[in-house]
Amino acid sequence: MDKAGGRTIFVGAGANMAHPNYSSPRETLVAALLELGRRQVDVVRHSPWYRTAPVPVSDQPWYVNIVAEVATELPPDALLQTLHAIEDVFGRVRTVPNAPRLIDLDLLDYRGEIVLPEPGKATLPHPRMAERAFVLRPLADLAPDWRHPVTGASIQALLAALPPEQEAHPF
Q1: pLDDT for 33-64, tens place per residue?
Q2: Are the C-beta atoms of residues 11 and 83 closer than 8 Å to each other?
Q3: Number of domains present in the structure of the chain
Q4: Cis omega before residue 56 (within 30°)?
């Protein structure tokens, strides 16, 4: 396995608002994982479920988060478009950054590729994943030897550097 986890693709999923068609944010995310399978994206496995504090700290509800390892022949940009299309189907409306949401699907790492920010393209790895407990804790369950493709930092080092207010608890 190389420093970024080999040929693995990781997708983060989170929600902190009740969806009108599902009983809880967790049930919304389960339905979204099933939807991935209908769109040329197979969920190989996923992390345990986590209950996580909002970032930045606020009075909004805590999130439910997981990281999924997926397999697909879609290139990164098409996969990101698929994730956004699923968010649209589930009613995600993008307002202000860090707003509460019905669903959030993020392309975290695509086979260790590094793609610099460019309008309309997937930035890889996800630009803020190394600063987020709601990504790193579940990712560590799936890939304890994962290293950040850009910095080479281990997932354990990234976790150790997180501020204490970024709580993430398995449930």
Answers
A1: 999 999 999 999 999 999 999 998 899 999 99
A2: yes
A3: 1
A4: yes
**92 Cβ partners below 8 Å, 6+ apart?**
101, 102, 103, 104
Of 7, 59, 77, 92, the active-site residue reads 92
CA distance 92 to 89: 8
Residue 58 is part of which domain span? 9-170
With cut-offs at 50, 70 and 90, classify the pLDDT of residue 94: confident
Does residue 2 surpass a pLDDT of 80? no
- Does residue 101 carry a catalytic annotation? yes
Q: From the candidates 104, 132, 137, 147, which is the catalytic residue? A: 104
2 as an active site residue: the answer is no
Instruction: Give the integer Cα–Cα distance in Å for 128 and 82.
Output: 20
Q: Is 104 a catalytic residue?
A: yes
Catalytic residue, chosen from 39, 51, 88, 101, is 101
Any domain includes 3: no
